[in-house]
Structures are given as structure tokens and as C-alpha cells.
Amino acid sequence: MLKSLTNPDKPFTLGILGGGQLAKMLASAAYRLGINVAIIENHINSPAGELTKLDFPQGWFNKEELDRFIEASDLITLENEFIDPDILEYISKKKKVFPSPQTMRLVQDKFIQKETFKNSGLPLPFFEKIDSIEELLNFSKSVSYPFVLKARKYGYDGYGNATIFNEENAIEAYNKFKESNSNRELLAEKFVDFTKELAVIVARNSSGQIEVYPCVETVQYRHICHEVIAPAEIEEKIRKEAQKIAVKCVESISGVGVFGVELFLTKNNDILVNEIAPRPHNSGHYTIESNYTSQFENCIRAVCDLPLGSAKMYVPASVMINLLGTRSGSGVPENITKLLKHNNIFLHLYNKKESRNGRKMGHITAVANTQSEARAIAVSAAKSIIW
After folding, report:
1. 53 pLDDT tier (thresholds 50, 70, 90)
2. CA angle 36, 37, 38 (to 5 degrees)
3. Three-state DSSP class for 65?
4. 93-126 pLDDT, tens per residue?
5. What is the average pLDDT across 156-168?
6. Predicted local confidence at residue 1, as pLDDT
7. Residue 156: what pLDDT?
8. Residue among 215, 219, 214, 223 at smallest CA distance from 195
9. Helix-strand-coil split of the chain, %, nearest 5
10. Longest C-alpha distance within the chain, in Å?
11. pLDDT of residue 197
12. 47 neighbors 23 (Cβ within 8 angstroms)
């Protein structure tokens, strides 16, 4: 058990900025290691906040609450990339925080992120920042339709992305982005005609030790991840190249913690970087049941500069399916009895208080001898839950 840095008679306390499902799964891994958890979130009854007495629901915009959270923590990490780096700078003057404010400044703005990767020689789709409708229309002439218009900050699960098919569509999307926030910065990116979307989780500690998880395939619908297939059913040389690129992405931002690197596999078997998430990633949930060390445990080990655990799978195949909300209302499913009758599945419900269409309410992981067998089990189980 780690000891507190300020009181050796108390266990170590890891502070987590954010209280959603990622923080909840981080907390579960921390408790297994004998580490206490403090949670700060901008509302009460967060999924992770309900797991600890050290819950700070007034959030990081409340200076007094933030100071109390910092005081209760020995070291701090985060579960989302939307916290202003200035807040992380403030925290870092009092306690260590990983990923660092410097890393977050390179990641949070997707244009800066892509510029950083480009300058490191990483393969990317063609992109440009967009500051006006004129620049957007000029971009369309250089790449042709379709292409993608993105918010540079605060986009997730399809929020902040728009696929552009013609000039009218481009103007409409630009105005829609600006209506929600006139100062919102945008970028445009060439559409990638990919055969698969891939992802690799990378763990890296302050000492420079790295553990690389298997390359997986993610199945997206309307920019939301529906399934993760582990390992990806691709040639071994492509898997290794994806892992190599993912490591270079993390090293280029001096990342400490766990990072999810999203990639495109083109028809020519080229790999292009989509983006990076500086935290545990949806594509790594399968690791809880399928790998010697889950992404959540290795995140804790990494930020605490502990030896990293093996990222290898100990099962032949694994498939994770997200349980997405299909209605607005209570976050409690009507009945899980039918689901629990399935064998070889692992159910995770996030205890979110409200459901809405497309919101991630939980996930199912199935393990088997082949990817197709695992997927059949997971799909059957997912269909049996009623929201």
C-alpha cells in the first residue's frame, strides 16, 4: 500500500478531476491497490463521487472547493481533456498533476495537437485551421467533398464534428458551430476513405517505461463507438506499425499516464493518426477482463511512477459493446435479468442518473476463442437489456 506523501500513517490518495464512468473505473482499480480516491466534479451524485467520502461536488470552478480537493490529494490526474490548462497550472503549483499542463496544452486544441504530430513526422490526413467561411470554401476546393469540419476544443462522441458534402452544407455547418459559440475555433480535415478504424492504448510513466496494448478495431456509428474488437483482425505487421505510431504520438507530447490513440487504416494499408485522448479510453475498456493489467490500473501506476504491468491479453479474443441510451429519462435499466443469463459476459453499468439517446450508460465485454464468437455473445447480451 502506498503511503500518503504528507502523513505516512495514512494511505495515499489519488485525486481525479472528473467523476464520470472513467473516474469510476479508475477508482475501482485504485482501491484494489490500496489507494484512496478523491473526486471533484461540477455536480452532485457523479458515478465516481458516490464511491468515496472524499467527494467535492462544487467543482473546479469553485476556488475554495478546488483548494480542498487539492489538499485532500497526494497526486492528481484527470478523466477528461476539457479542463482548462490554466486550472491544471494552478494545481501543479501545489501538487503533481499528470498528464501535465504542458502536455494538455498540446492535446486539448486539436489543431495544435495535429501540428505537434505533423512536426514529429507522424502520418496524418491533410488539415487546416478555419477562421472564416471563405477559408472553409477554399479548403473544399483543395480537397473536394466530402471532408470533415471539427471544433478545435471540447468535442467528443460526435459532438463537435460535421461531415461536409457540398457548399451549402459547409456554410450551414460553419454557422451552426458559430451560433453555439461565436469564438469557437474550427479546423477542417480531408475525409479518409478507411477500411477500419483502429486504436491503441499506451501507458507511460515518468521514468519513461512504456507498455503498449494490442491494436484493436473500433466500430463507430455517427461518430460514437459501438464496438471494440480485440485484437484487431488485421495483419501482424499492421498491428505492430499501429503500436509504433501510437508510442511516437505519446512521446511527442511527453505524455505521462494512459493515452488512447485513434487511427485510420486506409485501403492501401497505410495508417493515419486521427487523434489522441490523454486519459483512459473507450477502446480500452475490454482490458479490465482480458489483459493482465487493465488500462485503468496502468494509468494509476503510470501517474504514480510505479512499475507498469503487462498490457498483454491472456484470452484469445475479446469484444466490448457500449450500452447506449435509447430514450430520455431515468438512467436505471428496466430489467437486467435476461442479460445476466448469458455466459462469458461481464456487465458494467455506470450508474448515471439520466439517460439520453446515444449516451454511454454502460458496457458489456465478452471473451472467447475467436473475435466472431466473442462478438456473437456480446451482441446477444446487449440486445437483451431494456432501457
Report:
1. very high
2. 135
3. helix
4. 999 999 999 999 999 999 999 999 999 999 999 9
5. 82
6. 58
7. 66
8. 219
9. 30, 30, 40
10. 65
11. 97
12. yes
pLDDT 10s digits, 17-43: 999 999 999 999 999 999 999 999 999
Instruction: Please measure the distance between the N-terminal and C-terminal CA atoms of the chain and give it in whole angstroms.
Output: 40
Whether 1 and 25 have beta carbons less than 8 Å apart is answered as: no
For residue 386, the 8-state DSSP code is B
Quick one: how far is CA 380 from the chain centroid?
26
Grid cell of 235 as nine digits: 495483419
Residue 5: band (very low, low, confident or very high) from pLDDT cuts 50, 70, 90: confident
Cβ count within 10 A of residue 42 = 15
Do 259 and 200 touch, CB atoms closer than 8 A? no
> What DSSP line would sit under 214-234, residue for residue?
PPEEEEEETTEEEEEEES-SS
Q: How many CA atoms lie within 13 A of 355 on its CB side?
A: 20
Q: Which amino acid is residue 161, in one-letter code?
A: N
Question: 0.85 exceeded by the pTM?
Answer: yes
Q: Cell digits for 341?
A: 443469463
Taking CA atoms, 159 is separated from 126, 153, 330, 355, in Å, by 21, 10, 22, 17
Per the document, the length of the chain is 387
Nearest to 377 by CA among 318, 333, 315: 318
Q: Is 32 helix (H, G, I), strand (E, B) or coil?
A: helix
Let me know if 112 is exposed, middle or buried by CB neighbors in 10 A (0-12, 13-18, 19+).
middle
Measured CA angle at 84 (ends 65, 181), to 5 deg:
115
Strand pairing category for 186-190 and 127-130: antiparallel
Asked if residue 187 lies in contact with residue 128, where contact means CB atoms within 8 angstroms, the answer is yes
Q: Quote the CA–CA distance of 105 and 85 in Å, as a whole number.
A: 6
Q: What angle do CA 182, 106, 18 make, to 5 degrees?
A: 75
pLDDT (average), residues 153-179 = 86
Cis peptide before 99 (omega within 30 of 0): yes
Residue 385: C-alpha distances to residues 28, 246, 342, 358, 372 (Å):
24, 35, 11, 15, 21
Cell triple for residue 249?
504520438
